[in-house]
Amino acid sequence: MRDRHLNGKPDPLPDQVAGAFAGSGWFSAAPGGQQKKKLAELAPLVSDASSQVKKLVDEELPALNKKMNEAGIPHIIPKTEEHRRDEEMARTQRRRSRVARGG
Question: Taking the model in full, what pTM does it have?
Fold first, then answer.
């Protein structure tokens, strides 16, 4: 199982996780020994990355936003999945409207 780029650096974590699942028959059979070993290696890395993202969103981003507020700069607000779905729905409706108008 490849987990390094040709330059010798590790693949990005999402690529490593995807690689551990790819071609393993994961959805139709239990993972084999090599996949279990790789997933066991990746589990703490994923957990650590998740903790870092949570800290960034829960602590560091609000602190940055506070400083930006004090400087009169607009907030950075991460979009929720619901917000992304709403935006996609609006884009789809705009496309349909343009098509209906012949544009």
Answer: 0.53
